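[INFO] parsing input record for Cysteine synthase
[DEBUG] input buffer:
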Amino acid sequence: MSKNILDLIGNTPLVESRILNTNPNVKLFFKLEGHNPGGSVKDRPALNMIKSGLDRGEITKATKLIEATSGNTGIALAMIAGIYGLNIELVMPENSTKERVQTMRAYGAKVTLTSSDVGIEGARDYAEAKVGDEGYLMLNQFTNNDNWMAHYKSTGPEIWKDTEEGITHFVSSMGTTGTIMGTSTFLKEQNKNIQIVGVQPTDDSRIPGIRKWPEEYLPKIFDPKKVDTVMEVSQKEAEEMAVLLAKEEGIFAGVSSGGAAAMALRLAQSLESGTIVSIVCDRGDRYLSSDLFD
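[DEBUG] output buffer:
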């Protein structure tokens, strides 16, 4: 029995592709991060960033927290800040889906919407200005080592255990890059031959949650040496795969999960044998007000 909702973060299911993967010599597993209580993989770093900050005395009940987010991190931070009785302002582009904004507000967070013309970079600039001018503390998932350490402590060990130490390839979309950095660090310590595959959008694609960052906005926690291969996915491929995941595998997920799955399936077709794990980072109900499932 869990004592509180935070005990339910992590230990998410790993399920094997039964339909979409047609290579009999390759096992493809999807790690279903939508089963976290906040609905996404971002529950892990949000908890670790807030709890570690509290433990170190950097965060108190008087702290005014602020964070720029494309959605899932904000929801996770809103939920966890609420549980700890902390005030938080979340900043996101105005074209974010209605469900995300409403969910953050339901958890008690203040939500500020910035111009969609400047995207998540504009939201980051706004949050950083508030830190400098008004004394806010930004958790800053893009530079905070507690982000990737959450995955080093939980996501990586879970995958290693649940594949019975047999994983050969790990596939993850890259946004803040916390998931791929922490999981890569752990898995490479177990077996340096495990291949880490990062997924980015093509230049003409806009996929919520994953980015090809301009140099000046590249997350400081990102270490390119921890990624063996970068694959680029188009918005069309990512959206079509999100639909297929729901229809064929019964996995209801968002666009960035579709992007990772599309590249994992491409990888599966190219291998003679192997065990692939692809991160399904959230649930599809975050996208129902968009035209994704129309």
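[INFO] The chain has a mean pLDDT of 93.
[INFO] shutting down worker
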